[in-house]
## 1
Amino acid sequence: MEIICMDCGQAPLKAQKENIRYLEGGLPNVILKDILVETCPACGMRFVTIPRMAELHRLMAKNVILKPGRLANYEITFLRKTLGLDKKTFAAKMHVRLEQVSKWETRNAPATISPSHDLALRLLVAQGQRFEDYFGEVDAVDFRSTKQPPPVTLTVRDNHWIKEQLAA
Ligand SMILES: [Zn+2]
Protein backbone atom coordinates (compact mmCIF):
# COMPACT_ATOMS: atom_id res chain seq x y z
CA MET A 1 0.00 0.00 0.00
CA GLU A 2 1.52 3.29 -1.07
CA ILE A 3 0.90 6.49 0.86
CA ILE A 4 1.54 9.75 -0.99
CA CYS A 5 3.55 12.36 0.93
CA MET A 6 1.17 14.47 3.02
CA ASP A 7 3.51 17.44 2.73
CA CYS A 8 4.30 17.83 -0.99
CA GLY A 9 1.94 15.27 -2.55
CA GLN A 10 4.61 14.41 -5.12
CA ALA A 11 5.72 10.87 -4.28
CA PRO A 12 4.85 7.77 -2.27
CA LEU A 13 6.55 7.49 1.12
CA LYS A 14 9.28 4.92 1.68
CA ALA A 15 8.89 3.14 5.03
CA GLN A 16 11.71 1.70 7.08
CA LYS A 17 12.59 0.93 10.69
CA GLU A 18 15.25 3.11 12.28
CA ASN A 19 16.84 3.63 15.66
CA ILE A 20 16.22 7.24 16.55
CA ARG A 21 17.53 9.50 19.28
CA TYR A 22 14.44 10.80 21.04
CA LEU A 23 15.15 14.36 22.05
CA GLU A 24 11.58 15.66 22.18
CA GLY A 25 11.12 14.17 25.64
CA GLY A 26 13.89 16.44 26.97
CA LEU A 27 16.43 13.71 27.76
CA PRO A 28 19.57 13.66 25.61
CA ASN A 29 20.42 9.98 25.91
CA VAL A 30 17.31 8.00 24.95
CA ILE A 31 17.43 5.84 21.82
CA LEU A 32 14.24 4.28 20.48
CA LYS A 33 14.82 1.11 18.53
CA ASP A 34 13.03 -0.07 15.35
CA ILE A 35 10.82 2.98 14.95
CA LEU A 36 8.74 3.33 11.78
CA VAL A 37 10.12 6.22 9.73
CA GLU A 38 8.47 7.14 6.43
CA THR A 39 10.54 9.35 4.15
CA CYS A 40 9.44 11.27 1.07
CA PRO A 41 11.96 10.85 -1.78
CA ALA A 42 10.68 14.03 -3.42
CA CYS A 43 10.81 16.59 -0.60
CA GLY A 44 12.80 14.74 2.05
CA MET A 45 10.08 15.09 4.70
CA ARG A 46 10.31 12.47 7.45
CA PHE A 47 7.28 11.12 9.30
CA VAL A 48 8.22 9.35 12.52
CA THR A 49 5.62 7.16 14.24
CA ILE A 50 6.26 6.59 17.95
CA PRO A 51 3.72 4.19 19.47
CA ARG A 52 2.27 4.28 22.99
CA MET A 53 3.69 7.68 23.99
CA ALA A 54 2.26 7.81 27.53
CA GLU A 55 3.74 4.41 28.33
CA LEU A 56 7.07 5.43 26.77
CA HIS A 57 7.25 8.51 28.98
CA ARG A 58 6.42 6.47 32.09
CA LEU A 59 9.27 4.10 31.26
CA MET A 60 11.63 7.03 30.67
CA ALA A 61 10.64 8.52 34.04
CA LYS A 62 11.16 5.19 35.77
CA ASN A 63 14.56 4.87 34.17
CA VAL A 64 15.55 8.34 35.41
CA ILE A 65 14.47 7.80 39.02
CA LEU A 66 16.31 4.48 39.18
CA LYS A 67 19.57 5.93 37.88
CA PRO A 68 22.49 5.59 40.27
CA GLY A 69 23.80 9.19 40.26
CA ARG A 70 22.45 12.60 41.22
CA LEU A 71 19.68 14.00 39.02
CA ALA A 72 20.91 16.37 36.31
CA ASN A 73 19.21 19.67 35.40
CA TYR A 74 17.42 18.27 32.33
CA GLU A 75 16.27 15.24 34.33
CA ILE A 76 14.72 17.50 36.98
CA THR A 77 12.88 19.37 34.22
CA PHE A 78 11.76 16.09 32.65
CA LEU A 79 10.48 14.69 35.97
CA ARG A 80 8.72 17.94 36.85
CA LYS A 81 6.90 17.82 33.52
CA THR A 82 6.13 14.13 34.09
CA LEU A 83 4.40 15.22 37.29
CA GLY A 84 2.47 17.80 35.26
CA LEU A 85 3.72 20.66 37.46
CA ASP A 86 4.74 24.18 36.51
CA LYS A 87 7.82 25.56 38.26
CA LYS A 88 5.81 27.45 40.87
CA THR A 89 3.70 24.46 41.95
CA PHE A 90 6.76 22.22 41.88
CA ALA A 91 8.66 24.67 44.13
CA ALA A 92 5.78 24.58 46.62
CA LYS A 93 5.69 20.77 46.63
CA MET A 94 9.47 20.60 47.16
CA HIS A 95 9.38 23.30 49.88
CA VAL A 96 11.85 25.51 48.03
CA ARG A 97 11.67 28.98 46.47
CA LEU A 98 10.81 29.35 42.81
CA GLU A 99 14.34 30.66 42.15
CA GLN A 100 15.76 27.41 43.50
CA VAL A 101 13.88 25.41 40.86
CA SER A 102 15.25 27.71 38.17
CA LYS A 103 18.78 27.22 39.55
CA TRP A 104 18.37 23.44 39.38
CA GLU A 105 16.95 23.45 35.88
CA THR A 106 19.03 26.10 34.13
CA ARG A 107 21.32 24.95 31.31
CA ASN A 108 23.93 27.49 32.28
CA ALA A 109 25.87 26.23 35.33
CA PRO A 110 22.91 24.59 37.13
CA ALA A 111 22.96 24.19 40.91
CA THR A 112 23.42 20.61 42.12
CA ILE A 113 20.22 19.36 43.74
CA SER A 114 20.65 18.36 47.40
CA PRO A 115 20.39 14.63 48.25
CA SER A 116 17.14 15.17 50.19
CA HIS A 117 15.49 17.11 47.37
CA ASP A 118 16.77 14.58 44.82
CA LEU A 119 15.18 11.79 46.85
CA ALA A 120 11.94 13.73 47.40
CA LEU A 121 11.56 14.28 43.66
CA ARG A 122 12.18 10.60 42.89
CA LEU A 123 9.61 9.60 45.48
CA LEU A 124 7.05 12.08 44.13
CA VAL A 125 7.42 10.54 40.69
CA ALA A 126 7.42 6.99 42.05
CA GLN A 127 4.33 7.64 44.13
CA GLY A 128 2.53 9.24 41.23
CA GLN A 129 3.31 6.34 38.96
CA ARG A 130 3.10 3.41 41.35
CA PHE A 131 6.48 1.87 40.71
CA GLU A 132 6.07 -1.12 43.00
CA ASP A 133 9.70 -2.12 42.72
CA TYR A 134 11.07 1.35 43.44
CA PHE A 135 11.68 1.26 47.16
CA GLY A 136 13.98 -1.72 47.08
CA GLU A 137 16.20 -0.13 44.47
CA VAL A 138 16.53 3.34 45.93
CA ASP A 139 19.11 2.05 48.42
CA ALA A 140 21.46 1.54 45.49
CA VAL A 141 21.50 5.25 44.61
CA ASP A 142 24.90 6.85 45.06
CA PHE A 143 24.09 10.50 45.72
CA ARG A 144 27.75 11.52 45.62
CA SER A 145 27.96 10.53 41.97
CA THR A 146 27.08 13.10 39.32
CA LYS A 147 28.34 10.88 36.51
CA GLN A 148 25.76 10.38 33.78
CA PRO A 149 24.73 6.87 32.79
CA PRO A 150 25.24 5.52 29.26
CA PRO A 151 22.43 5.90 26.71
CA VAL A 152 19.35 3.81 27.29
CA THR A 153 17.76 1.95 24.39
CA LEU A 154 13.98 1.50 24.53
CA THR A 155 12.04 -0.73 22.18
CA VAL A 156 8.54 -2.13 21.72
CA ARG A 157 8.20 -5.85 22.34
CA ASP A 158 4.89 -7.72 22.58
CA ASN A 159 3.13 -4.38 22.20
CA HIS A 160 4.81 -2.75 25.21
CA TRP A 161 7.74 -0.41 25.68
CA ILE A 162 10.65 -2.09 27.40
CA LYS A 163 14.22 -1.17 28.20
CA GLU A 164 16.58 -3.15 26.08
CA GLN A 165 19.09 -5.05 28.17
CA LEU A 166 22.67 -4.72 27.08
CA ALA A 167 24.51 -7.94 26.36
CA ALA A 168 26.94 -8.77 29.15
ZN1 LIG B 1 7.10 15.06 0.04
## 2
Amino acid sequence: MLAVQQCYVIKEAPGKGLGMFATRDIRRGECILAESPLVYGTPDFIETQRAIDAMSPADKESYFALHNVHSDLPAAIGIMKTNGLPLGVDSVECAVYKHASRINHSCDPNVHHAWHSRPRKEYIHAIKDIAAGSEILTSYTVEFKVREERMTFLQQHFMFECQCRLCATPSPEYDETVRRIKIYSDRIPPCASLQPRRSIQYVRDILALLDTIGGNGKTRFYYDAYQICAMYGDYNFAQKWADLLLESYIMDEGLDGDEYDVTCDTEMTPARMNVPDVPHVKSFLRAIYRRQFNAQPSSIGCFIYSAIVSIKKSFALALGREGGGLRAP
Ligand SMILES: [Zn+2]
Protein backbone atom coordinates (compact mmCIF):
# COMPACT_ATOMS: atom_id res chain seq x y z
CA MET A 1 0.00 0.00 0.00
CA LEU A 2 1.40 3.33 -1.03
CA ALA A 3 -0.80 5.91 0.59
CA VAL A 4 -3.76 6.12 2.93
CA GLN A 5 -5.94 9.23 2.98
CA GLN A 6 -9.33 10.03 4.46
CA CYS A 7 -11.52 7.93 2.25
CA TYR A 8 -9.27 6.16 -0.26
CA VAL A 9 -6.20 4.04 -0.60
CA ILE A 10 -3.83 3.64 -3.55
CA LYS A 11 -3.21 -0.06 -4.09
CA GLU A 12 -2.86 -2.80 -6.69
CA ALA A 13 -5.81 -2.91 -9.14
CA PRO A 14 -5.84 -6.36 -10.75
CA GLY A 15 -4.70 -6.11 -14.38
CA LYS A 16 -4.37 -2.31 -14.22
CA GLY A 17 -1.30 -1.61 -12.09
CA LEU A 18 -2.20 0.68 -9.20
CA GLY A 19 -5.60 2.24 -8.64
CA MET A 20 -7.61 4.21 -6.08
CA PHE A 21 -10.10 2.39 -3.81
CA ALA A 22 -12.69 3.64 -1.32
CA THR A 23 -11.83 2.81 2.29
CA ARG A 24 -15.34 3.66 3.47
CA ASP A 25 -18.73 4.31 1.92
CA ILE A 26 -18.60 7.59 -0.03
CA ARG A 27 -21.78 9.51 -0.78
CA ARG A 28 -22.63 11.17 -4.07
CA GLY A 29 -21.43 14.78 -4.00
CA GLU A 30 -18.61 14.17 -1.54
CA CYS A 31 -15.20 15.63 -2.29
CA ILE A 32 -12.77 12.70 -2.34
CA LEU A 33 -9.64 14.65 -3.11
CA ALA A 34 -8.40 18.21 -3.73
CA GLU A 35 -4.82 17.95 -4.87
CA SER A 36 -2.09 20.33 -6.04
CA PRO A 37 -0.11 19.17 -9.09
CA LEU A 38 3.26 17.49 -8.88
CA VAL A 39 4.15 19.31 -12.10
CA TYR A 40 2.52 21.17 -14.98
CA GLY A 41 2.87 20.28 -18.66
CA THR A 42 2.48 22.28 -21.87
CA PRO A 43 2.56 21.26 -25.57
CA ASP A 44 6.17 22.51 -25.53
CA PHE A 45 8.26 19.42 -24.69
CA ILE A 46 11.37 21.46 -23.77
CA GLU A 47 9.41 23.60 -21.32
CA THR A 48 7.74 20.51 -19.83
CA GLN A 49 11.07 18.69 -19.51
CA ARG A 50 12.51 21.76 -17.75
CA ALA A 51 9.64 21.78 -15.22
CA ILE A 52 10.13 18.07 -14.54
CA ASP A 53 13.88 18.54 -14.09
CA ALA A 54 13.18 21.25 -11.50
CA MET A 55 11.01 18.97 -9.29
CA SER A 56 12.15 17.93 -5.82
CA PRO A 57 13.69 14.44 -5.54
CA ALA A 58 10.59 13.17 -3.66
CA ASP A 59 8.20 14.54 -6.30
CA LYS A 60 10.37 13.09 -9.06
CA GLU A 61 10.15 9.69 -7.41
CA SER A 62 6.33 9.90 -7.35
CA TYR A 63 6.29 11.18 -10.93
CA PHE A 64 8.54 8.52 -12.44
CA ALA A 65 6.60 5.77 -10.62
CA LEU A 66 3.55 6.59 -12.79
CA HIS A 67 2.53 4.53 -15.79
CA ASN A 68 3.89 5.38 -19.27
CA VAL A 69 2.30 4.09 -22.48
CA HIS A 70 4.48 6.19 -24.80
CA SER A 71 7.68 4.17 -24.96
CA ASP A 72 8.69 6.03 -28.15
CA LEU A 73 9.07 9.29 -26.17
CA PRO A 74 11.48 10.30 -23.38
CA ALA A 75 10.08 8.86 -20.11
CA ALA A 76 9.37 12.30 -18.60
CA ILE A 77 7.26 13.34 -21.61
CA GLY A 78 5.61 9.92 -21.99
CA ILE A 79 4.44 10.01 -18.36
CA MET A 80 3.05 13.51 -18.86
CA LYS A 81 1.13 12.41 -21.97
CA THR A 82 -0.17 9.28 -20.21
CA ASN A 83 -1.18 10.87 -16.90
CA GLY A 84 -1.69 14.58 -17.51
CA LEU A 85 -5.15 15.94 -16.68
CA PRO A 86 -6.13 19.12 -18.57
CA LEU A 87 -6.39 22.42 -16.67
CA GLY A 88 -10.01 22.93 -17.66
CA VAL A 89 -12.10 21.48 -20.45
CA ASP A 90 -10.38 23.01 -23.49
CA SER A 91 -6.97 23.72 -22.01
CA VAL A 92 -3.82 22.61 -23.83
CA GLU A 93 -1.99 22.76 -20.50
CA CYS A 94 -2.18 19.84 -18.13
CA ALA A 95 -0.84 18.64 -14.79
CA VAL A 96 0.21 15.37 -13.21
CA TYR A 97 -0.74 14.42 -9.65
CA LYS A 98 0.60 11.96 -7.14
CA HIS A 99 -2.84 10.54 -6.33
CA ALA A 100 -5.39 11.89 -8.86
CA SER A 101 -3.26 10.52 -11.71
CA ARG A 102 -3.65 7.03 -10.17
CA ILE A 103 -7.40 6.93 -10.81
CA ASN A 104 -8.16 4.34 -13.48
CA HIS A 105 -10.69 4.67 -16.28
CA SER A 106 -14.25 3.43 -16.63
CA CYS A 107 -16.78 4.37 -19.31
CA ASP A 108 -19.24 4.24 -16.39
CA PRO A 109 -17.29 6.39 -13.89
CA ASN A 110 -18.19 7.02 -10.25
CA VAL A 111 -16.25 10.29 -9.91
CA HIS A 112 -15.92 13.55 -11.79
CA HIS A 113 -12.58 15.34 -11.97
CA ALA A 114 -12.32 19.11 -12.38
CA TRP A 115 -9.56 21.70 -12.28
CA HIS A 116 -10.29 24.78 -10.19
CA SER A 117 -8.07 27.68 -11.13
CA ARG A 118 -8.28 29.77 -7.97
CA PRO A 119 -6.92 27.21 -5.49
CA ARG A 120 -4.99 25.65 -8.42
CA LYS A 121 -6.10 22.17 -7.45
CA GLU A 122 -7.70 19.18 -9.11
CA TYR A 123 -10.96 18.22 -7.38
CA ILE A 124 -12.39 14.71 -7.42
CA HIS A 125 -16.08 14.44 -6.48
CA ALA A 126 -18.22 11.32 -6.23
CA ILE A 127 -21.01 11.35 -8.84
CA LYS A 128 -22.48 8.14 -7.44
CA ASP A 129 -22.58 6.52 -4.03
CA ILE A 130 -19.40 4.43 -3.79
CA ALA A 131 -19.30 1.39 -1.49
CA ALA A 132 -16.27 0.78 0.75
CA GLY A 133 -13.75 -1.36 -1.12
CA SER A 134 -14.91 -0.33 -4.62
CA GLU A 135 -12.47 1.12 -7.10
CA ILE A 136 -12.74 4.86 -7.68
CA LEU A 137 -12.98 5.38 -11.44
CA THR A 138 -13.07 8.39 -13.72
CA SER A 139 -13.61 8.67 -17.48
CA TYR A 140 -10.71 9.40 -19.82
CA THR A 141 -13.00 9.75 -22.84
CA VAL A 142 -15.34 12.44 -24.09
CA GLU A 143 -18.99 11.93 -23.14
CA PHE A 144 -21.52 10.26 -25.40
CA LYS A 145 -19.43 7.90 -27.47
CA VAL A 146 -20.63 4.45 -28.48
CA ARG A 147 -18.64 1.38 -27.41
CA GLU A 148 -16.61 1.12 -30.62
CA GLU A 149 -15.66 4.82 -30.56
CA ARG A 150 -14.64 4.60 -26.89
CA MET A 151 -12.53 1.51 -27.49
CA THR A 152 -10.76 3.11 -30.47
CA PHE A 153 -10.10 6.30 -28.50
CA LEU A 154 -8.75 4.47 -25.44
CA GLN A 155 -6.57 2.21 -27.58
CA GLN A 156 -5.13 5.17 -29.53
CA HIS A 157 -4.49 7.45 -26.55
CA PHE A 158 -3.94 5.09 -23.62
CA MET A 159 -3.22 1.75 -25.30
CA PHE A 160 -5.56 -0.43 -23.30
CA GLU A 161 -8.70 -2.38 -23.96
CA CYS A 162 -11.43 -1.22 -21.59
CA GLN A 163 -13.00 -4.00 -19.54
CA CYS A 164 -15.54 -1.82 -17.74
CA ARG A 165 -19.15 -2.93 -17.28
CA LEU A 166 -20.24 -1.15 -20.46
CA CYS A 167 -17.41 -2.44 -22.64
CA ALA A 168 -17.20 -6.02 -21.35
CA THR A 169 -20.77 -6.77 -22.40
CA PRO A 170 -21.85 -4.88 -25.55
CA SER A 171 -25.26 -3.26 -25.19
CA PRO A 172 -26.89 -2.17 -28.48
CA GLU A 173 -29.61 -0.40 -26.45
CA TYR A 174 -27.03 1.67 -24.58
CA ASP A 175 -25.23 2.60 -27.81
CA GLU A 176 -28.54 3.55 -29.44
CA THR A 177 -29.37 5.82 -26.48
CA VAL A 178 -25.95 7.47 -26.73
CA ARG A 179 -26.42 7.99 -30.48
CA ARG A 180 -29.77 9.67 -29.91
CA ILE A 181 -28.35 11.92 -27.19
CA LYS A 182 -25.56 12.95 -29.55
CA ILE A 183 -28.03 13.71 -32.39
CA TYR A 184 -30.30 15.83 -30.14
CA SER A 185 -27.29 17.53 -28.58
CA ASP A 186 -25.94 18.55 -32.01
CA ARG A 187 -29.36 19.97 -32.93
CA ILE A 188 -29.60 22.30 -29.91
CA PRO A 189 -27.19 25.11 -30.99
CA PRO A 190 -28.53 25.66 -34.55
CA CYS A 191 -32.10 25.40 -33.28
CA ALA A 192 -31.65 27.70 -30.27
CA SER A 193 -31.89 30.99 -32.15
CA LEU A 194 -34.84 30.15 -34.45
CA GLN A 195 -36.81 27.49 -32.60
CA PRO A 196 -36.13 27.92 -28.88
CA ARG A 197 -39.10 25.76 -27.86
CA ARG A 198 -37.83 22.90 -29.96
CA SER A 199 -34.34 23.31 -28.45
CA ILE A 200 -35.79 23.10 -24.97
CA GLN A 201 -37.65 19.96 -26.03
CA TYR A 202 -34.35 18.44 -27.19
CA VAL A 203 -32.92 19.20 -23.75
CA ARG A 204 -35.90 17.52 -22.07
CA ASP A 205 -35.57 14.48 -24.38
CA ILE A 206 -31.84 14.24 -23.58
CA LEU A 207 -32.47 14.47 -19.83
CA ALA A 208 -35.01 11.64 -20.10
CA LEU A 209 -32.55 9.54 -22.12
CA LEU A 210 -29.76 10.23 -19.62
CA ASP A 211 -32.01 8.95 -16.84
CA THR A 212 -32.20 5.59 -18.62
CA ILE A 213 -28.39 5.23 -18.57
CA GLY A 214 -27.53 6.33 -15.06
CA GLY A 215 -28.38 10.04 -15.04
CA ASN A 216 -24.86 11.52 -15.31
CA GLY A 217 -23.84 14.33 -17.67
CA LYS A 218 -26.86 16.60 -17.19
CA THR A 219 -25.04 19.77 -16.16
CA ARG A 220 -24.23 21.06 -19.66
CA PHE A 221 -27.82 20.52 -20.82
CA TYR A 222 -29.20 22.46 -17.87
CA TYR A 223 -26.82 25.21 -18.93
CA ASP A 224 -28.07 25.06 -22.55
CA ALA A 225 -31.69 25.33 -21.37
CA TYR A 226 -30.82 28.14 -18.98
CA GLN A 227 -29.09 30.10 -21.73
CA ILE A 228 -31.95 29.67 -24.21
CA CYS A 229 -34.55 30.84 -21.65
CA ALA A 230 -32.38 33.78 -20.54
CA MET A 231 -31.74 34.75 -24.16
CA TYR A 232 -35.51 34.93 -24.81
CA GLY A 233 -36.21 36.82 -21.59
CA ASP A 234 -38.10 33.95 -19.96
CA TYR A 235 -36.48 34.62 -16.59
CA ASN A 236 -38.91 32.46 -14.66
CA PHE A 237 -37.83 29.33 -16.50
CA ALA A 238 -34.25 30.58 -16.74
CA GLN A 239 -34.17 30.69 -12.95
CA LYS A 240 -35.56 27.17 -12.67
CA TRP A 241 -32.96 25.81 -15.07
CA ALA A 242 -30.28 27.78 -13.19
CA ASP A 243 -31.41 26.07 -9.97
CA LEU A 244 -31.00 22.65 -11.58
CA LEU A 245 -27.71 23.73 -13.10
CA LEU A 246 -26.40 24.89 -9.74
CA GLU A 247 -27.48 21.72 -7.97
CA SER A 248 -25.90 19.53 -10.63
CA TYR A 249 -22.75 21.65 -10.75
CA ILE A 250 -22.28 21.51 -7.00
CA MET A 251 -22.80 17.75 -6.95
CA ASP A 252 -20.17 17.29 -9.67
CA GLU A 253 -17.65 19.92 -8.66
CA GLY A 254 -18.49 21.01 -5.12
CA LEU A 255 -18.50 24.42 -3.54
CA ASP A 256 -14.98 24.11 -2.22
CA GLY A 257 -13.23 24.66 -5.55
CA ASP A 258 -14.43 28.22 -5.77
CA GLU A 259 -13.56 29.88 -9.05
CA TYR A 260 -15.39 33.09 -8.21
CA ASP A 261 -14.24 35.62 -5.68
CA VAL A 262 -16.82 35.39 -2.93
CA THR A 263 -14.85 37.88 -0.85
CA CYS A 264 -16.14 40.50 -3.31
CA ASP A 265 -19.73 39.49 -2.69
CA THR A 266 -20.84 43.05 -1.91
CA GLU A 267 -20.95 43.46 -5.68
CA MET A 268 -23.28 40.48 -6.03
CA THR A 269 -26.34 42.44 -5.08
CA PRO A 270 -29.73 41.22 -6.25
CA ALA A 271 -30.02 44.35 -8.39
CA ARG A 272 -27.17 43.11 -10.51
CA MET A 273 -28.99 39.87 -11.00
CA ASN A 274 -31.99 41.16 -12.94
CA VAL A 275 -30.48 39.32 -15.85
CA PRO A 276 -29.75 35.86 -14.48
CA ASP A 277 -26.11 35.51 -15.34
CA VAL A 278 -24.80 32.13 -14.22
CA PRO A 279 -21.45 33.23 -12.75
CA HIS A 280 -23.28 35.86 -10.71
CA VAL A 281 -25.96 33.44 -9.62
CA LYS A 282 -23.30 31.00 -8.51
CA SER A 283 -21.19 33.64 -6.79
CA PHE A 284 -24.16 35.14 -5.00
CA LEU A 285 -25.39 31.77 -3.81
CA ARG A 286 -21.92 30.80 -2.71
CA ALA A 287 -21.48 34.07 -0.84
CA ILE A 288 -24.71 33.41 1.06
CA TYR A 289 -23.64 29.82 1.61
CA ARG A 290 -20.34 30.88 3.10
CA ARG A 291 -21.90 33.49 5.35
CA GLN A 292 -24.52 31.09 6.62
CA PHE A 293 -22.27 28.12 7.10
CA ASN A 294 -19.29 29.92 8.50
CA ALA A 295 -17.16 29.77 5.38
CA GLN A 296 -15.95 26.23 5.91
CA PRO A 297 -15.93 24.09 2.77
CA SER A 298 -17.82 20.90 3.36
CA SER A 299 -17.13 17.54 1.84
CA ILE A 300 -20.36 15.94 3.00
CA GLY A 301 -22.80 15.43 0.15
CA CYS A 302 -25.97 15.57 2.23
CA PHE A 303 -24.77 18.72 3.96
CA ILE A 304 -24.16 20.34 0.58
CA TYR A 305 -27.66 19.32 -0.46
CA SER A 306 -29.27 20.93 2.57
CA ALA A 307 -27.08 23.99 1.98
CA ILE A 308 -28.38 24.26 -1.58
CA VAL A 309 -31.97 24.25 -0.32
CA SER A 310 -31.08 26.92 2.19
CA ILE A 311 -29.18 29.19 -0.20
CA LYS A 312 -31.92 28.87 -2.77
CA LYS A 313 -34.47 30.10 -0.23
CA SER A 314 -32.19 33.05 0.52
CA PHE A 315 -31.83 33.71 -3.18
CA ALA A 316 -35.58 33.66 -3.70
CA LEU A 317 -36.10 35.99 -0.75
CA ALA A 318 -33.42 38.36 -2.02
CA LEU A 319 -35.18 38.62 -5.34
CA GLY A 320 -38.60 38.82 -3.76
CA ARG A 321 -39.72 35.70 -5.58
CA GLU A 322 -41.17 32.41 -4.59
CA GLY A 323 -38.67 29.64 -3.94
CA GLY A 324 -38.35 27.39 -6.99
CA GLY A 325 -38.05 24.01 -5.32
CA LEU A 326 -35.77 21.35 -6.76
CA ARG A 327 -38.22 19.90 -9.24
CA ALA A 328 -37.61 19.93 -12.97
CA PRO A 329 -39.14 22.82 -14.90
ZN1 LIG B 1 -15.32 0.92 -20.96
